[in-house]
Known about the structure:
The protein has helices at residues 3-19, 23-41, 60-71, 84-92, 106-111, 127-152, 173-177, 182-204, 206-211, 217-247, 255-278, 283-300, 312-317, 322-336, 344-364, and strands at 49-55, 75-81, 98-102, 119-122.
Amino acid sequence: MNATTLKILLKKELTLMRRNPIVPRIIVAMPILVMLVIPLVATLDVKNVGVAVVDNDLTELSRRIVADMDASEYITVVGCHYGYGEALRQVESGRADAIVTIPRGYLDDLTNGKNPQLDLKANGVNATKGTLGAQYATMSVANTLRRWASERGVAPPQATASTVNLYNPTLNFRNYMLPALMVVLLIIICGFLPTLNLVSEKETGTIEAMNVTPVGRFEFVLSKLIPYWAAGILVVTVGMAVGWLAYGLAPAGNVGCVYLATILFTLFMSALGVFIANKSATILQSIFMMFAFVVIFQLMSGLFTPIASMPRWAQYITYAIPPRYFIEIMRSVYLKGAGLADLWVQYAALSAFALLFCIIAAMTYKKQA
């Protein structure tokens, strides 16, 4: 490999990137937009659950139960009704996700030492919101009854366990998503862009002119990939800065672990892009092929859906999905402060995938004289 030739080709590629009206904007603007917008909209945090209350008791305690639920940041009481039919219409219209029915004589039964039960029905159309909404309402009522019993001495408050949330004390889903969003940026910057760059050379015919020159295939491919490797490092740096400035989330572990994982995953994505470009004759073909990989990566890597929630057969398939290891590294470094010794399996897997696809990319690229 001729270093002088590679240097000249790199200078040419950087000049073309700088003159391109789209690529510099994508590299700079995309990480800012992704890290700012997606954590706000792509969240599994369930808040503002609508609850319709049917108050058949009409006592001070029932009104306190309703007030405490409405004061919760997770629950919104959409109405206090005197008939089940009215509350059900709130669910049917989509305004309520659950119905809490306070039975008649509820306060009297509690005062006499009985254990009356509230009737709680959840909207199963949105299973996640309905189930969590029912749990929120149950916990709110339990807390109200515990305080009410303690104030009046009706019964001693029940013993409760002290809960401590490790690694993500606020249970904010945003903290879970932010580290993993780096994979989306690297897939586009270091996967899509090099692929489109190489295929565009085929369509314009410039790659044929390059093939008849003494330039070796390794110098040519490296000159196409190295700028995007640097762009990948820049993108992750911008992403981490935005996450820290906008949401106050910074890696709990060594930042070097983040960059090492970034380099390995960048190598894999760029090698995959070269392989797809080698097998594509047009830009449209390369887009469809890359898009097929991207869909699988996002659905099977644990980006949005936890791998532990997948069927057993699907969990085995995820071991062949390289983004899985990158996401595991990012979340562990960010939230747990894990280091190389803790994540050596993930790093080894990423290294193996990067090496394998680099070899495949080099073998499938044919320089025709």
